[in-house]
Hints:
Blueprint: E1 2-3, H1 11-28, E2 37-44, E3 47-53, E4 59-65, E5 68-74, H2 100-103, E6 119-124, E7 131-132, H3 145-149, H4 156-166, H5 173-180, H6 187-193, H7 199-209
Antiparallel strand pairs: 1-7, 2-3, 3-4, 4-5, 5-6
Helix pairs in contact: 1-7, 4-5, 5-6, 6-7
Amino acid sequence: MRIWGSPLADPDVLKNRLMTLAALDVILSSDKWLRVHRYEPQWRGGAELGIIDNGAGDDLYIVYAPEGVIIKGFDHLSPMSPHAGEEYGVWPGIYEETPKELLVYLEDNELFEYEDVTFCIWRESGDSQWRTGEVENPERLDDGSGFLLGRLEDTPQQYADWAATYYDEPVQLDAVLQIFSGSAITEELIAALNPKRDAEAALEELDALGIRESRA
């Protein structure tokens, strides 16, 4: 295995960003199936799950488990997709060295396809580095990691611009900034972001996710 070579924030930072993005999507859409960013704090076996799914065939799953954190990304246009080659199969090196105690969480095919993967990163509990396998990629083919992990680095302005296009509604940047900064989410803040949203229903969802109160 090797150390992941691209900059990637610590697990707690990524978790906070995932929860922020999930909270924003809860507010901007009452339809769960439309949301791109989701967070499940009680997923399975003591593990939590963050999801980014753009609905166009690309997705990112981040599992927070007692054993550590594992990230599975799939860019359907990547030449490293199992669907891109003449013979279907996971690209060599992606899973071979992944710790078994973390890899088992990816075998929940009711939620996502185990073989739909173009990169996999992990960080075992107590480790200070993100790691990946010795992936066979001498031509430096694009595995989609820059594109998918880049969604976790969006600024409030980038999110607001994206959301306005995706949800086809104006998005107030000041309200987005407040949620990015960790402010407690109130009915007033929900109304500022999405006047059409049932604030009570949104708050109920946010309470269940544990992302309503201030995280600053």
